[in-house]
């Protein structure tokens, strides 16, 4: 009979983690924190991966106060210096509206990963600081960190809200240079960008360039009732 490689103590951690994440995703924050404190006070080891998962769950429901409590625990447990944990903290603070905290953490990081960059760019873009989001994206490029398709969705959205049409088109056109083929969500961002600038001919040009048929997302972005006469 084959024995499990997971020890009883690890089963306890997995069970507690599953319960905690489930509580947070369902908005039962007090139950989730009770579960976390039970893990802590029962002596269960919370590693960086476990800690990051719980932080990500807090971020998904914008549970700032609970996330800050976890941050304090992470500092006491010497987990904060791990790049995965730091990135999860940047993401949590960005999604909870404390871009200032996220920025402070991001700037103090000695090592960053793709998730770190995306979280900081997203934080600025989401809270109306499009030009700052673009600054971070440019810094990302200078650091030779490779952006992914999510990065480009975020930065194109930042260009939309900052009204930076030419910059947005420049970023869209550079995607293949990073090994990324634009997808429907990227075209949607570009069409939104052009629509807000009333560049109707350009919208038609980009729709005709699409490698796939426009879907409902594209037509909604175009405001079909306004642009249907083009086709």
TrEMBL record:
InterPro entries: PPR_At4g14850-like_plant, PPR_rpt, TPR-like_helical_dom_sf. Pfam families: PPR (PF01535), PPR_2 (PF13041). One of its GO terms (molecular function) is kinase activity. Transmembrane segments: none annotated. The keyword Transit peptide applies. PPR repeats lie at residues 82-112, 113-147, 148-182. One of its GO terms (biological process) is plant organ development. This is Shaggy-related protein kinase kappa. It comes from Zea mays.
């Amino acid at each position: 009979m084959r024995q499990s490689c997971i020890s009883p103590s690890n089963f306890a951690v997995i069970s507690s983690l599953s319960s905690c994440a489930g509580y947070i995703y369902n908005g039962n924050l007090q139950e989730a924190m009770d579960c976390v404190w039970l893990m802590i006070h029962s002596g269960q080891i919370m590693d960086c991966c476990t800690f990051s998962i719980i932080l990500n769950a807090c971020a998904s429901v914008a549970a700032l106060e609970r996330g800050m409590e976890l941050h304090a625990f992470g500092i006491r447990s010497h987990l904060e210096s791990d790049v995965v944990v730091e990135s999860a903290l940047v993401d949590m603070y960005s999604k909870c509206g404390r871009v200032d905290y996220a920025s402070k953490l991001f700037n103090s990081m000695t090592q960053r990963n793709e998730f770190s960059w995306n979280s900081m760019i997203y934080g600025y873009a989401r809270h109306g600081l499009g030009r700052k989001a673009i600054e971070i994206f440019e810094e990302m490029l200078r650091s030779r960190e490779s952006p992914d398709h999510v990065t480009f969705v975020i930065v194109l959205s930042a260009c939309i809200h900052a009204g930076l049409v030419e910059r947005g088109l420049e970023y869209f056109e550079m995607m293949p240079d990073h090994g990324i083929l634009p997808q429907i969500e990227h075209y949607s961002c570009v069409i939104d960008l052009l629509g807000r600038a009333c560049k109707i001919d350009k919208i038609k040009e980009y729709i005709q360039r699409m490698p796939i048929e426009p879907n409902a997302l594209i037509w909604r972005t175009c405001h079909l009732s306004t642009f249907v006469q083009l086709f």
